[in-house]
């Protein structure tokens, strides 16, 4: 997933309280508010792009899933006990019920059996795709490029595999390698739909990284001049001139670039803790209006399935700041397919810049009920935290730990929750688990989040404020790159 971090507000600490530690409730409030949830990835645009270009058009409606009871009954059939899809469905059903620990053995069995099949036939791409899906389910993205590189060495002429390798290289930010694989895939089979799925994602990742670099190195003026690199998508259009998806892909890429421009142009306000509307202005607004007309023209041609156009209009209206029209477009898309998680993720995302978490939560709940992916569930836990619903936030993180027990960000989140509730002993317990996850390759002393959480827990339990504590707070307060800078500064004023 893309690594554009969302910046959430750290609540300002109260001024003018006595410089003493935990003498009354007001002092513990100051420490509670210094705790901040781990940063969350804004994966909305990447997931939107992926779903916009799945090789098959979305159905008019998604058939209702079988109940857990029906799945378990089917599992009793000896012929189906190693059915990978069935085992994954059982895991998913338990997960939806908030009982991932009961479903995980089925997922583990599916994974073990898939690995066994793959070892017996390492040229079976369908099995490798199943393995990849399960690895993504438990948050193990980093290992996937290596798996697919080995497969491509065995099957060098398969464009589908090259495109899949490029996809995972993109998601681990290996853009140059992904570009080479994508070019090879085009040479092997320019009409393979997997290629233009990855082509759009390549354009998206490249735009995201270039826009970020231009903003940092050249400022907003140069950022506004940014132009997309559309060579892969234009090549796809030449090879598939009549394919609606390719024409839509070009519009999607342009819409995605506009999203990043609008986001980065407004990011200074976001960083400064000022709520704002994610709304296009000037040239970006003109470009959005032109795109809007293109999408509306597509609708007038009465396409066989207008779902994707309505879905794009949801994002477009969000960027225009016209949330009522976005809701209307969502309703039109929902009438065709009410089981598309991205619709709800996009609408929930629209309320994040204004800090309207209470409005975002229902949409993220709907999205994760449809597709309980790790990143979105983690984002939902973040929203619960910011909305002061610590019990629900904790429940989501505990569920995620069942399938990703080595993910230290989950432990960071739990530590932040417990610090917010004056449960310092429980916070220290999570921090101890956190430290145990680090190997020799990961320097715990360099993890600033861990250091700050550990400091807060110890600080809260100290009998008095000490000079060494003041020195550490000053270091954080002077660190321009620390997301705890403001909190540390307020603690300095509060206690020293």
Automatic annotation (TrEMBL):
Matching InterPro entries: TPR-like_helical_dom_sf, TPR_rpt
TPR repeats: 341-374
Listed transmembrane segments: none
UniProt keyword terms in alphabetical order: TPR repeat
Pfam family name, one: TPR_8
Superkingdom classification of source: Bacteria
Protein's UniProt keywords contain rRNA-binding: no
Keyword DNA repair part of the UniProt annotation: no
PANTHER family membership: CELL DIVISION CYCLE 16,23,27 (PTHR12558), CELL DIVISION CYCLE PROTEIN 27 HOMOLOG (PTHR12558:SF13)
Protein name: TPR repeat-containing protein
């Amino acid at each position: 997933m893309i690594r554009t971090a969302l910046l959430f507000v750290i609540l300002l600490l109260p001024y003018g309280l006595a410089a003493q530690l935990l003498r009354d409730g007001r002092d513990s409030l100051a420490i509670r508010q210094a705790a901040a949830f781990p940063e969350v990835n804004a994966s909305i645009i990447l997931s939107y792009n992926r779903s916009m270009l799945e090789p098959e058009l979305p159905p008019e409606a998604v058939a209702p899933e079988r109940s857990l009871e029906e799945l378990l009954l089917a599992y009793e059939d000896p012929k189906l006990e190693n059915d990978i899809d069935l085992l994954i469905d059982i895991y998913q059903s338990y997960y939806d019920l908030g009982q991932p620990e009961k479903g995980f053995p089925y997922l583990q069995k599916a994974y073990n059996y898939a690995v066994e099949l793959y070892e017996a036939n390492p040229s079976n791409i369908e099995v490798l795709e199943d393995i990849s899906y399960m690895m993504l389910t438990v948050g193990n993205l980093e290992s996937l490029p290596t798996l697919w590189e080995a497969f491509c060495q065995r099957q060098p002429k398969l464009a589908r595999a090259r495109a899949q390798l490029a996809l995972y290289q993109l998601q681990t930010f290996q853009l140059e390698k992904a570009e080479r694989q994508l070019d090879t895939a085009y040479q092997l089979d320019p009409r393979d739909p997997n290629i233009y799925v990855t082509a759009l994602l390549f354009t998206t990742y490249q735009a995201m990284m270039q826009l970020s670099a231009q903003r940092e190195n050249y400022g907003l003026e140069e950022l506004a001049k940014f132009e997309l690199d559309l060579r892969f998508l234009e090549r796809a259009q030449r090879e598939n001139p009549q394919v609606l998806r390719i024409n839509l892909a070009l519009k999607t890429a342009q819409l995605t670039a506009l999203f990043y421009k609008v986001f980065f142009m407004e990011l200074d306000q976001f960083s400064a803790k000022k709520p704002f509307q994610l709304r296009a202005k000037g040239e970006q607004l003109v470009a959005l209006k032109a795109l809007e007309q293109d999408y509306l023209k597509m609708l007038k041609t009465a396409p066989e399935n207008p779902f994707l156009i309505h879905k794009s209009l949801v994002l477009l209206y969000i960027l225009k700041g016209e949330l009522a029209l976005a809701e209307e477009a969502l309703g039109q898309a929902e009438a065709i397919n009410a089981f598309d998680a991205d619709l709800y993720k996009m609408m929930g995302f629209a309320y994040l810049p204004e800090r309207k978490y209470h409005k975002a939560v229902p949409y993220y709940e709907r999205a994760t009920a449809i597709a309980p992916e790790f990143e979105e569930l983690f984002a939902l836990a973040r929203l619960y935290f910011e909305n002061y619903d610590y019990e629900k936030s904790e429940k989501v993180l505990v569920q995620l730990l069942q399938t990703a027990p080595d993910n230290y960000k989950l432990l960071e989140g739990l530590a932040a929750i417990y610090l917010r509730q004056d449960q310092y002993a429980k916070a220290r317990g999570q921090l101890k688990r956190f430290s145990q996850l680090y190997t020799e390759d990961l320097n715990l002393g360099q993890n600033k989040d861990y250091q700050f959480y550990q400091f807060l827990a110890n600080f809260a339990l100290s009998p008095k404020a000490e000079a060494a504590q003041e020195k550490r707070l000053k270091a954080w307060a002077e660190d321009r790159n620390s997301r705890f800078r403001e909190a540390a500064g307020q603690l300095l004023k509060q206690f020293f």
